[in-house]
User: What shape does this take?
Amino acid sequence: MAAKVADVDRLGDGDPMGDHRIVFTPSGLNGTVEHGTTVLEAARRLGADLDTVCGGRGICGRCQVVPANGAFAKWGITVDADSLGPAASIETDYRGNRPLLDRHRLGCAAAIVGDVVVDIPPSSQRHRQVVRKDLDLPPMVIDPSFTLWYVEVAKAELGDESTAARILASAIEQQHGHVPASAPFPVLASLQPAIDRGDGAVTVAIDERDRIVAAWPGFVDAAFGVAVDVGSTTIAGHLCDLTTGEVVASAGRMNPQIKFGEDLMSRVSYVMMNPGGDRELTDTVRGALDELVGELVEQAGASRDKVLEVVVVGNPIMHHIVLGIDPTPLGQAPFTLATNEAVVALAAQLDLALPNARCWVGPCIAGHVGADTAAAILAEGPHRSDTMQLLVDVGTNAEIVLGDRARQFAASSPTGPAFEGAQISSGQRATAGAIEGVRIDPVTLEPRVKVIGADVWSDDPGFAEATRRLDISGICGSGIIDVVAEMFLAGVIDQDGVIRGELASRTDRVIEQGRTFSYVLWGHGDNLITVTQNDIRAIQLAKAALRAGIDLLVEHAGNPQIGEVRLAGAFGAHIDPLHAMVLGLVPDCPLPNVRAVGNSAGTGAVQALLSRTLRAEMEQAVREVVKIETATEPRFQELFVSAMALPHASAPAPNLATLVALPEPMERNDTGGRARRRRRGVAE
Assistant: This one.
């Protein structure tokens, strides 16, 4: 007898031995079912979101519900304490994978013997909401691409005219009320061995197209997916439980392609100049991806055969290289993508040792704006914003998105590797001992520093002990941003980025090196960490490229007021928002509205992995983005020149001026030459 959705007007006490009313909370789904129907079966009939893997055998413990008692005026029913009947043996003898919590009942065992209201807690919902603060993952509803079902099949007898695929399909229909469509070729070979090894007990994975995509002997309670952001410098991955949404392991590593060149264009050049170079780059990054997956499953105590999907995002060149597509068209105008659609492939086709997994490679936006930006858009939601949001992923190739729910613009700017320590005389990667924070006294011009691996500043009493085992040998990206901004605020450099050599008479921190000057940040004798004039110029060039790209998007958008600025990426997560504004890296904005948001691309990749709805939103969002190509924009060079100055040659900075004492602009003499300028509060 099928469940009937009840009409509010005919609510009332159920017939003790006939039909009974059941209401599921928090959804409010309700209907009538016959006496003795289990809560799980009622949920199936009415479409309530109640999870199960074992199909009602009391093994998985996923279908736990909490019965409620009393009068419920909203639904016009009164629930007795015994409306679910006594605990069945599979409840009293329960030894399942998940503990049966206090007051909880197993939906597969609890029989409806009266009108009842049951709550489905989040842990029992298949499409549950999860919150992951450690990954900066916003609350989201799990909408997985795969379902696990445990079935028991009868042993085949001689003369049976059936197949392993048909036997499994029939068992799924009988025990779960669902008919799978097919079993694709890659999984066929594993079906009969799974049935045999499990002695007829099998867990299958069904994808969103109702296909059997994996089979394991016995009861399997969890399947996994991997979300990966393939950056030009680093590769970051997260292993997620597809049934709960939990991020169970995270890991990262350097992209080994760095040996072919620090930046993307140098890798494209390598392919152009070396026959077979594209294959070399592809093999290198795929090998790193496979090693990363192995590290993740080992970290979680899982196995590779339980991984069902890998979501990959990355910039267009990484996207093409991972897929084995020649990246050279992206190295020259008109920067043509092979495709801007999402690509689906078997994991084995990308040389990943994952026998049951497929790969979903996210859609690119334009020739230099990739799937990593698409993932960042999904995570940060400029297309959902009521105010104009500026999203900047600061890296060797900066991606920029400006938009609100009405319109979105995107571009990239070739900032180069300076922000990550390359091309800087004392630059290094963000490892233990690297200087990551700098403050300079504007009067004495003395610095204090903070290094990775120690939680104290250099002028704190415990600094020597905290850094005793560390080799303070260079400056990482966030430290470079800090030191240049602090040098400007302290008057060590002027608005044109020139180190003021006349200060050498005031402090031994400013030293002459050939025809230019440098600032001594750390060290003694011959072991000095300095910031040179060339270092300052490298940062200016990088920040000017980024800021010019931002200003170009602002112009295309009609010069709107920017409501908020979000700094994304592994590097962007460590930038001091104030110092970013001091450098003019981002436009002037109220400081509370400028914030670092971490690896948004990785967050978006996890969201796309765990939710089909969000995956579709990403694909739709990128179709609406207006692409701006900085390389062909005539205004870019003019905007670039203006952005070389600190913080900017012409853009006002009223918000920044309320936070710090900005140095006075350089005065000019009558002949147009540069004269010494005066700073507020500093005698010269």
